Amino acid sequence: MRILVTGASGWVGSASVKELVSAGHQVLGLARNDEAAAKITQLGAEAVRGSLDDLASLRSAAAQAEGVVHLGYNHDFSQMAAAAQTDRAAIEVFADVLQGTGGPLLIASGTLGLAPGRVGREDDIPNVSVHPRIANATYTVGLADRGIRSMVLRLAPTVHGAGGDHGFVAVLARIAREKGVSAYLGEGHNRWPAVNRLDAGKLVRLAIDKAPPGSVLHAVAEEGIATRDIATALGQFLDVPVESIPVERAQQHFDWLGMFFGADAPASSARTRSLLGWEPTHATLLEDIAGGHYPGH
After folding, report:
1. According to CATH, where is 3.90.25 located in the chain?
2. Most C-beta atoms within 10 A of its C-beta, which of 38, 57, 116, 243?
3. Could you tell me the pTM of the whole model?
4. Residues 123-163: tens digit of each pLDDT
5. Class level of CATH domain 166-193+223-266+284-290
6. Whole-number Cα distances in Å, 53 to 39, 74, 123
7. Which residues, including other chains, have CB under 8 Å from residue 157's CB and lie 6 or more apart?
8. Which element (helix H / strand E) includes 13?
9. What CATH fold (topology level) applies to the domain 2-158+195-222?
10. What span, in angstroms and rounded, lies between the C-alpha atoms of 20 and 212?
């Protein structure tokens, strides 16, 4: 199948492109500049120029494909509403192109804030007030009624691995190195789910190959890792003390990350595994930290 991938040169996108190519798909990777185009080509895909802000380029690229994997997103927390609007406009373009074809349209979302107080499941419907992006996922699931094999892939908040993760754990490592202490909040019993980027890429490929219309999938390899254990692993690798700090000091110590690091947000992928036969096989988060993939600079 000929698949367009947005975010193809990114953290999850590059792993997904390699999986799709290895499975025999022809992949078009959306590239906003020469650097991204070169990386996409190295992955074995064909680079097509365009950006999420240029709807004409998205329409042109999607028209060359039989399906779309939409992983590109602006994760600037100071522009959440604008980023969600850009995302929605892109999804609507892809829907217009794929309508009635039965072709796959997979978009990325997240598990954070899914089911406060318990383990989140694929059939949970999160409150749209948690993040403006959630409404886009709901819209995408509904595209199954328009003859599109629509799928929402909820990624764990920590997608880890070797090769340049710039996400939450990388920020935690930088803060620990800068402040000389690897901290957690309160007792540190709150849990974060995680998935290795290579396992996430494999799930994207399985979804494109066989997920039914309207599927909601969880890219979660580890249901919930105690934040105290994450802080301890970082402290051991960075050789800094590990300490608890009061919850009321979360923003002072962690800046914007404080509002997330105190959340208890475990999530299950049991239904996803049963549906698609997905079994994560790559390194765990704590193994990747111990392996030196989060040096904090």
Report:
1. 166-193+223-266+284-290
2. 57
3. 0.96
4. 998 877 777 788 999 999 999 999 999 999 999 999 999 98
5. alpha beta
6. 21, 10, 31
7. 110, 111, 112, 167, 168, 192, 193, 194, 260, 265
8. helix 11-22
9. Rossmann fold (3.40.50)
10. 18
